[in-house]
């Protein structure tokens, strides 16, 4: 806002050949004032949490994820969010001290129920494997299936790929060693991908058997077998529409608009900002064109519109009475 109004700061980077205005033409609005405006809007968003999304349809397939934020004096907190993986609707987030506690995730689901989510209709939840989420779902939401995020499985397996490729190149050096490492790594990745991308559970087991049969795939197969059932939940008819990854990509938009939390100082201000962001995200339509690395399933439509409750000419600022 300061850059656009005063044609200064980042404006100079965006418009490198523009002429920088004189000092009297610059915007002398204090950044702290902008954050106070943001916090006031967040207060309205926090007040609107009860029954905020009553009547908005849900697919019953949700994803949950957390983002660590650093506050004043180096304190760390986690912003937890619950997302409908079919429509993209976000229920009001919560800020907690840790994500490995069942109490933290229980607070998130209670907040979603307060805002209008019928927990009895939830059938599946995709998560990154946080023990608190798994424990809460298993103990309280026993009818809900937990989908293990395949992206995090890949990240866990990546630590095993490099040693196996190096083992294959034992005794070689230089170009020959690089070629062998590259070939073996490609082979193992293709076998792992055959398991995780299988169209059915039987095909996944067959692909896992091929990985076990590989000379260097035994350890990878053992690690993958531990998560196989949880990684294939999205293929069940009961969980049609469930994403196979946690909704980490939503935090990109959060960081672009609200940073990682350093400017919010306290837990309460961070939570108010997160509630404000969720309302903005539900109202804001996705852009119509895709990017090189980003594709939009519902171009030009907001999550509320996908859920069958299009806001029409009402903006998120109107909803906040700002």
Describe, in plain words, how this protein is organized in 3D:
With 322 residues, the chain is an alpha/beta fold. The protein folds into two domains: 61-148 and 245-319, 2-Layer Sandwich (Nucleotidyltransferase, domain 5); 150-235, no CATH class. The protein is 48% helix and 11% strand. The protein has 13 helices and five strands. Strands 3-2-1-4-5 form a five-stranded mixed beta sheet, with helices on both faces. Helix 4 (102-115) packs across helix 5, helix 6 (150-168) runs antiparallel to helix 9 and helix 7 (174-196) packs antiparallel against helix 8 (201-213). The longest helix has 23 residues, at 174-196. It is globular and about 70 Å long. The mean pLDDT is 90.
* Form type: globular
CATH class of the largest domain: Alpha Beta
Mean pLDDT: 90
The computed structural class is alpha/beta
Specify Rg, calculated over alpha carbons: 23 Å
**Oligomer classification:** single chain
- Unreliable stretches: none
Distance N terminus to C terminus? 17 Å
Percent helix range: 40-55%
Q: Give, in spatial order, the strands making up the sheet with the most strands.
A: 3-2-1-4-5
Amount of beta strand: 5-15%
Total of helices: 13
**What's the name of the CATH homologous superfamily of the largest domain?**
Ribonuclease H-like superfamily/Ribonuclease H
CATH architecture of the largest domain: 2-Layer Sandwich
Task: Count the domains.
Answer: 2
Which series of helices and strands comes N to C? HHHEEEHEHEHHHHHHHH
The biggest beta sheet is recorded as:
5 strands, mixed
CATH topology label of the largest domain: Nucleotidyltransferase, domain 5
- Give a count of the beta strands, DSSP E runs of length 2 or more: 5
